[in-house]
Helix-turn-helix transcriptional regulator
Amino acid sequence: MSGGDFVSKKNIIMEKAIELFSKKGVESTSIQDITEACGISKGAFYLSFKSKDDLLVEITDYFIKKFIAVQNKILDDNIPVDEKLPKFFYFNFKLLEEHYSFISMCMRENFQPMNNEVIKKIKEFNAIQHEALLSIIHQTYGNRGEQLKYDLLLVVRGLLVSYTEFITTHPQKYNLERLADCLAEKVNIIAEHSKLHFVTEQLWNSISYAHIEEMVSKEYILSLLEQLNSQYKEMPLIEESIALLMEEMKKERPRLAILNGLVSNLENLEDFSLVVFLLKQYVLNLQTVS
């Protein structure tokens, strides 16, 4: 089976599993249910996933990559700074709309992942989202938002979570552009008129979130590239880009122009959204040092 066929089969199984989880819940859905819905044998399932827990890890990764792909677009320099925060809200709610059944099931059942790998991935995603939001806040408010940046980050996340819960418990067709503009306006008012801040950098760094610094490392990025390389065998253009990236990252002083060029080959591929985000942060760190 070629790399492309393997990835395609895994995606089909995940899509069917998401449909079943949305209808029946995670606990009530068996591997037998999933294989019957896919029209495959259990043996074929186990060629793609070691267990139901392994499938849940991959589904978590699937959604995380979608959200990171959205963040990567918003952080792009081509988007005007005054549009970044509204677009952050809009694209997050748009993903909620597109995957409403599954996300509402998770919230309805108060789904708590017990798999350590799922918990780790969610913590890592939170760290990435925090870093992306801090970038958006800095780009939007500049130096005047510096003291408030952690408070503003929590305000944005609080609004996102609260309105996500509201939408999932009161399903109907919403004007997402108006909602995004409304929430961005609220954040702007707080940013413009707040005179006090509560969360200091010292307090923020003392909290036990996964820290982005641990992820923006040569070793971690190389491990992600190795995983992706094993999935994209026999897909020459992607495989070559990964190989060149790994070769460059292993050098004592990676060349920024080469990294940027290779990242641009992969940034429109959703599967690569996490590694693209981390590579861009890695390049930014190298530029700051130099």
